[in-house]
Design a protein that fits this description.
305 residues, mainly alpha, three-stranded antiparallel beta sheet, 10 helices, 3 strands, elongated
């Protein structure tokens, strides 16, 4: 009775065509034509192509062609450390896009664009896109091992959900309840909302400190967002003569909110664009004192020696 190993050897012997001449690399020589066997890498690429066809979805990162995703798009203030054999796509561009769109619309309302003053339209976006989708992206950041991205995206997803709950017209009655407790005066709600915004200013300042050794694009996003929360908080706490939120300060907060939304979209694009779908790479400008900046400086010094 032949063993399994002996059977495998016989099968391999039968597959070897003795009518062909083989060179040392495992290819066959047929009248000058080379019949080369596929390498393991080529086999993996062909397998992916069979599943997805040819295009961006069929791209396989190998040891020879591996490249790190764009820094800003990974929502990671430190050097990007890819998770080995991760099954998730990069969730950061999704979370950044959800944050950007919701912030963009609210900032236009805060600036009084085309006379729109009530933020009712933002409630739906905050529930669906800025809240739910961004929260999910934050959870996926946790799955791929990005602590900063998980903390930031999940927290701001929670911010938009809380914002929508507070301002849902006739829904949770938070504003009317606070006004009723102050004999109909709006000061109770405006002060409470100002406290809410100042709390997010403090939280954003903490995240801002973690970007000081990252990139200019990443720092600008959190710097403009920090100013947005600060100005809006001051606008609700330091009201005008009529007792309404201070219009110039709120508009200034809306302006910096617009800057933050475009910075978020820029960082999202940095995470989406690569050589499989774009003709250019999005620059994110590393600080000279960042880890990447110092490494580049060392390489430059060695090159001049």
């Amino acid at each position: 009775m032949a063993t399994a190993q002996e059977q495998n050897n016989v099968a391999a012997h039968e597959r070897f065509d003795h009518s062909k001449e083989y060179d040392n690399s495992g290819t066959t020589q047929n009248g000058g034509a080379v019949d080369r066997q596929m390498t393991h890498e080529e086999h993996a690429i062909a397998k992916e192509a069979a599943r997805f066809g040819y295009g961006p979805l069929a791209h396989v990162n190998t040891a020879n062609s591996g490249r790190l995703p764009a820094f800003g798009g990974e929502f990671q203030p430190g050097l990007y450390k890819p998770v080995t054999d991760r099954k998730f796509a990069n969730p950061a561009p999704l979370g950044l896009s959800a944050f950007a769109l919701t912030t963009f619309v609210l900032s236009l309302v805060n600036m009084g664009t085309r006379g729109v003053a009530a933020p009712n339209i933002v409630v739906g976006i905050a529930f669906g896109y800025g809240g739910l989708v961004q929260l999910l992206a934050g959870m996926w950041e946790m799955a791929v091992g990005n602590t900063f991205g998980a903390t930031a995206l999940s927290s701001y997803g929670g911010f938009w959900l809380a914002f929508a709950i507070i301002l849902t017209p006739g829904g949770f009655a938070i504003e009317s309840s606070l006004e009723a407790s102050a004999d109909g005066a709006a000061t109770q709600f405006l002060d409470s909302f100002g406290f809410f915004l100042m709390g997010w200013f403090i939280f954003t300042t903490i995240l801002l400190l973690a970007t000081l050794r990252s990139t200019v694009a990443f720092f600008i996003l959190f710097f403009t967002l920090d100013l947005t929360f600060l100005l809006l908080g001051i606008g609700y706490l330091h009201r005008d003569a009529t007792g309404a939120p201070n219009p110039p300060i709120v508009k200034a907060g809306g302006f910096f909110g617009l800057l933050a939304s475009f910075a978020a979209w820029y960082n999202a694009l940095a995470g989406i664009a690569d050589d499989s779908n774009s003709f250019f790479v999005i620059p994110v400008a590393h600080f000279p004192w960042s880890v990447t900046g110092l490494e580049r400086k060392k390489k430059g010094d060695k090159a001049t020696v």
